[in-house]
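Quick check before the chapter quiz. The format below is the same one you will see on the exam, so make sure you can read both the input and the output lines.
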Amino acid sequence: YSSGHSSRNNNARCDSFTVSDSSVDEGDEVTLRWKTSNADDVDINQGVGDVDDDGSEKVTIDEDTTFTLTARDGSSKDTCKVTVRTNGSTSHHNDNEDLRCVFSVSDNSI
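Here is the expected output.
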């Protein structure tokens, strides 16, 4: 039997916020996973937007990115953060490992 009153803390809470890989190549996809408690509204920044209280979302990483999950219930809120770093490569495949510049002139005197 419940009287409708509880002694537990009913503030919104971010229980967990994780990422499938914290270091990736630019353009790679990662999965964000989270769990919250007592939240009426949950959102993730960086263009993800409103999300379910518990869930997962795939996102593409183009640069070092910190995601912030915010769980709200009335005036209470809790935030969690995860960061994904890129490995510093400018492309997935370095097809130009041996770049050369060729310079030629048509007249060797000025």
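If your answer matched, good. The first strand starts at residue 13 and ends at 19.
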